[in-house]
Amino acid sequence: MADRATLPRSDRANTVPSTEVAESPFHAKGMLWMGIRAFMEAKIPGGVAAVSAELSPRIREFLTQMFLPTAFYDLMPILSIAQAAGTVLKVDKLEYVKRSAVWHAEQDMTGVYKAMLAMDSPIAVCRRFGSIHQQIYDFGKAQIVREDTNRVDSLATGIPEPLAWWWKRASEHYVCTVLRGAGAKSPRTVWQANQPDGSREGVPLVRIPSYSAWA
Prior knowledge:
Layout: E1 27-29, H1 30-43, H2 47-52, H3 57-64, E2 72-74, H4 78-89, H5 93-108, H6 114-117, H7 122-136, E3 141-148, E4 151-160, H8 164-181, E5 188-191, E6 195-200, E7 203-213
Antiparallel strand pairs: 1-2, 3-4, 4-7, 5-7, 6-7
């Protein structure tokens, strides 16, 4: 098992080594995993138990452990878990991630991020996304590089390539849901091609340019 003390984070002591599956250097706070399980219980027939039945024993143990909201846990298991959740829902993994992201955004707008997301303009909402990313993940950075009246251009760096499809899908539908809540009409996020961005512990990283626009 990887030594969590090697993580270059000031709060690395709060990173929890959960099971043998938790070996990657890319983590998310337990609040994200708690939300993933809450979505399963609320929206997937059979809940966590049904999804767990589709998983390998090690990842099943990971998903069913007790998560602490502010501790960090490996994010790589989401790849297998998204596939399993889609199987139970009878949709592909992309549709599962979309449904989960929309649900999470709706919950956050009335819960943990209510004050942060209750902005008076879509631009202000976009400016907050980088802060939310830094609060949840211990890797990468999301920032705005250009602003217009009805559009922001953004750049994410240091995203692990195996997780890029999940991160983009979840971010797109989370942000667009919050933008609609802030009054944006027909919001959309357009992703440009991933670009190499080095590697971390043998895992390739990518830069992801994008823009979000609305009417």
